[in-house]
Amino acid sequence: MHPSPLLKVAGLYKNFGGVQAIHDLSFDLARGELLGLIGPNGSGKTTAVNLITGFVKPTEGNIIYNGQNISGLPPYKIIRMGIARTFQMVKPFYQLPAYKNMIIPLYSPRVKKRVGGKYGDRDAVALDLLEEVGFERDAFVAYKSASVLPQGYLKRLELAKAIALQPDLIILDELFSGLSLAEVASIVPIIEKLRLEGKTIIMIEHRLKELFRIADRIIVLNYGEKIAEGFSNEVMESDAVKKAYLGAEA
Amino acid sequence: MRNAQLNSTDSKHRRKERIDRGIKARSSDIFALSSWREMLYLAAPRCIPIVGCLMLPLVLGIYWQKVLLSVAVFALLAISWDILEQSGMISLGQALFFGMGAYTAGVFNHYFGWPPFLTIPFASILGGLISTVILLPVLRLRGIYFSMVTLIIPLMLVRIVEATRIFGGTEGLSGITPLPSKWLELYLIVGALLGALFGFRRMMGSDYGLVLKAIRDNDRSVMNAGINVYWFKAQALFIASAIGAFAGAFMTHVYMFVGMPVFALDYSILPIAAAVVGGPGTLAGATLGAFILVPLSEILRGIGGLRIVIYGLFLVVFIVALPEGIFHYIQRKYHQFERWVEV
Ligand SMILES: Nc1ncnc2c1ncn2[C@@H]1O[C@H](COP(=O)(O)OP(=O)(O)O)[C@@H](O)[C@H]1O
Ligand SMILES: [Mg+2]
User: Fold this and answer.
1) Hey, which residues does B342 pair with through a beta bridge?
2) Is A129 helix (H, G, I), strand (E, B) or coil?
3) Residue B228 domain flag
4) Is residue A68 part of a domain?
5) Residues of A in contact with B214 (CB under 8 A)
6) Is the ipTM of this complex over 0.85?
7) Would the CB atoms of B224 and A87 count as touching at under 8 Å?
8) pLDDT at B2 over 60
9) Beta pairing class for B14-18 and A60-65
10) Virtual torsion, Cα A22, A28, A34, A35, nearest 10 deg
């Protein structure tokens, strides 16, 4: 394995007006690792993702990706370097059929040359990628407008758009929320397959059972601060976590 | 196979079927045509406007030839507006593009003696570039904020010309070289309109156009694909402003004059009306709208004071009766054409 971490977050702060959304967050992420990021609602998980992907500028601190400081760069530059993320609130192109949604990431400079444009190659690649995340080809779901797709398919579409970018690091922001147990069970193997392909993954999840089964390591956030870090079962033993996280849920 | 059935004389067991069914079922863009009817069905929407536009100058009288020039110019401005609209930018200032092209052509002809066949392409590019650079800082503004700025800038430019007296000030620049012949004039603008209509329709239907449309739908999601949204918006803005600047440069040589009226509100508002009445999002609708509204306004010219009221009533009726736009309505009806097939 590569000795240096793929991602290094160091002393990150983000304030929204008076709200400290992220307070002194630091962690390393090794290549090929699957990191689970958990915490109660409003604890700053999505903000952390927005900071890493450039959608929000940090108040203070550094984000080093592949040895390069990316904090403050615009999202499109960061994404081109090989980070892809899904949105907790799905953001499809509602006017377009599902497979045409895929054309946008396939048109990204990162993959554009590799998947060719003319004569509909891109459509074919789009359909293949969608089939991989569970758009049944026989049912022609991929041809339906995104505006009529149920939540389960929109989440899969988010995942497919991220995969289409051929990223090294994939950040999944509550991909499982709003999905049935059966749907979650059908997506877990896709994530495991991504790991086998050597992708590094950060998963933000409320479905702890499923997360703990596949995560290498867990970080717990509360009020923007890291309150625990470690293996799944260890983390849940910590008093701070019990108080903040389970206390809030129970 | 189905075609053989279609041509068979036995008509006992028949039902109606949409003509496009057979064509569409094969593919959305690779056509396997099997009859002259299917070929005609696909070709007619392209052939009718092309043949129609090329014939019009020959059959119209001198007065209506002038109206045709005006129709084509407003159609180009409406196409330019529609491209911006599809890319998520609502412009209220097509006059900026028109005026920039008009003044660029006028200045290079008047001061440097460039001939029209140089000034027109040059002014399309330079006028488009200047307009784009002016609007670049507000490209990040969304929705109404972008619109407000586009509305105000041409009005400001009028006052600047007036106050600084540059380029002839309130008098404008006259004695601009005309185009060599009336026929060249007519066919240049009609050819440009057809080229813009089909060329940019093709562009908006390509993957590149899809990215522009996606920006309107959800720009954060486009950024999230590693695409520089501002760069794409700037490109769309340049394309749209170059189209408008071409129309302006052309008219400078038709009028043999350029002055403050090129920034008039008409050039901003009428193209929007044309696109909305014709049906935005297709470019063809915008063109159709100009072919309806400009002649309508000419016909009403005889009426006098109530002209605007009647014109306004027409607009309201169009929009209330066909809120989707005339083109979408025709397109829908066209796809519903039926033919007999055996069952
Ligand atoms: N764009 C924003 N403007 C203001 N406050 C924000 C913004 N984004 C997030 N916050 C605040 O930051 C805190 C963390 O939010 P978030 O990162 O969405 O939490 P989580 O994803 O863990 O539920 C919340 O208090 C939220 O209200
Ligand atoms: Mg969140």
Assistant:
1) B14
2) helix
3) yes
4) yes
5) 93, 96, 101, 104
6) yes
7) yes
8) no
9) unpaired
10) -30
Q: Is residue B319 part of a domain?
A: no
* pLDDT, position A3: 67
- Smallest CA–CA distance from B216 into chain A, residue: A93
pTM for the whole structure: 0.89
- Looking at residue A34, its pLDDT comes to 95
Q: How remote is the CA of residue A45 from the centroid of ligand 1, in Å? A: 8
User: Is residue A2 assigned to a domain?
Assistant: no
Ligand 1 atom closest to the CA of A56, numbered from 1: 1
Contact B224 A53 (CB under 8 A): yes
Two tokens, residue A170? 């994939």
Is residue B226 one of the residues assigned to a domain? yes
Count of structural domains, chain A: 1
Query: How much of chain A, in percent, has pLDDT values that exceed 90?
Result: 74
Q: What percent of chain A is modeled with pLDDT above 70?
A: 94
| CATH number of the domain where residue A52 is located | 3.40.50.300
pLDDT band at B337 (very low <50, low <70, confident <90, very high): confident
pLDDT in tens, A83-126: 999 999 999 999 899 999 999 999 999 888 777 655 557 888 99
Query: Is A82 within the bounds of a domain?
Result: yes
CA distance B143 to chain A (A): 18
The average pLDDT across B39-62 equals 89
Residue A105 is part of which domain span?
7-246
Q: Which amino acid is at B23?
A: I
Q: How many domains does chain B have?
A: 1
Q: Is residue A20 part of a domain?
A: yes
Report whether B189 contacts B72 (CB < 8 A): yes
Q: How far is CA A105 from the centre of its chain?
A: 15
- The residue whose C-alpha atom lies closest to atom 17 belonging to ligand 1 is A44
């119209």: which residue's tokens? B60
Q: Which domain holds residue B240?
A: 51-268
Which numbered atom of ligand 1 lies nearest the CA of A88? 21
Q: Take residue B33 and report the two structure tokens written for it.
A: 């045509």
Query: Reduced to 3 states, what is the DSSP secondary structure of residue A12?
Result: strand
B283 at A interface, C-beta within 8 A = no
What confidence category does residue B6 fall into, taking pLDDT thresholds of 50, 70 and 90? very low
Query: Closest by alpha carbon to B69, among B184, B201, B154?
Result: B184
Nearest CA in chain A to B214: A93
What was the pLDDT predicted at B4?
Answer: 43
Inside any domain, residue B341: no
Kindly report, residue by residue over B98-138, the tens digit of the pLDDT.
999 999 999 999 999 999 999 999 999 999 999 999 999 99
Q: How confident is the model at residue B302 (pLDDT cuts 50, 70, 90)?
A: confident
